[in-house]
From TrEMBL:
It holds the Pfam family NAD_binding_10. InterPro entries: ComplexI_NDUFA9_subunit, NAD(P)-bd_dom, NAD(P)-bd_dom_sf. This is NADH-binding protein. PANTHER family: NADH DEHYDROGENASE [UBIQUINONE] 1 ALPHA SUBCOMPLEX SUBUNIT 9, MITOCHONDRIAL, NADH-UBIQUINONE OXIDOREDUCTASE 39 KDA SUBUNIT-RELATED. Residues 9-112 form the NAD(P)-binding domain. It comes from Geomonas limicola. GO terms for molecular function: protein-containing complex binding.
Amino acid sequence: MDRRVLVTGASGFIGRRLVVALAARGVPVRCLVRSPVQFPVPVEIVQGDLLEPLTLQPALAGVDTVYYLVHSMAGGRTEFERRDREAAENLRRAAEQAGVRRVIYLGGLGETGAGLSGHLASRLEVASILKQGSYATTFLRAAIIYGAGGASFEMIRALVLHLPVMITPRWVSTRCQPIAVGDVIRYLVGCFFEEATAGETFDIGGPEILSYREMMERFAALAGRRLAIVPVPVLTPRLSSYWVGLITPVKPSIAIPLIEGLASEVICRENRIRELIPFPLTPFNEAVMQALEEEKTLQKS
């Protein structure tokens, strides 16, 4: 295997898992990180920043495929949109100059339109920028990703464990299609080996469509907790983000764009990728149990 891969966002929630999975398949992996970090597998580490273009050419030298896993959420909508746009444009230019053959981008599900949250709209804009490159772009659109360390999982876990009675806004009735982090990694790795995914956009989600209320109620049952949910019409996403910031480890600066996105229905409109990369999808309850077990392991280590 001489098709070298560059993973941006390699130290993040998805990136770390992807690096391990690629290395296990014998793929030569180079990790782009802003600060020195250790990985549990032998990989090449290059320090750089997508917002600093001069650091990208050394990172991209000899690279066949780039995984783009970077997305800003903090700093207010105008600020994170600007950073996302600038980072994507820098990568596109540098990848073209380096002769990169493919870019695989993990973004978010969500319909287009004026009502789309800033968080989801920015992810769509990044996809649009990357697709303008001379390489082939694969765009995976994911709903909520469940796994230990993920912001959505940590937010719901903390709410369920600390608030037996929860006053919530209308977004608890919004439908989504949560997907286990392990399944996301399978799709990301599968795209590298399946050339038919090059230049295509795919929706990825789990086997069930649930409301956020159903997810929290199921989570509570699995964790052995009682939970009463009382929806109210006057609780805005911004107010919601403040009490989420008080109760959970998710910072308000991240909770605001995250919760604003919860007002948008995020379900798969097509399932073509299941034919190209087939495997049994993980049910929601099993994904929660896997995340809880992983969390226990991380706490012991």
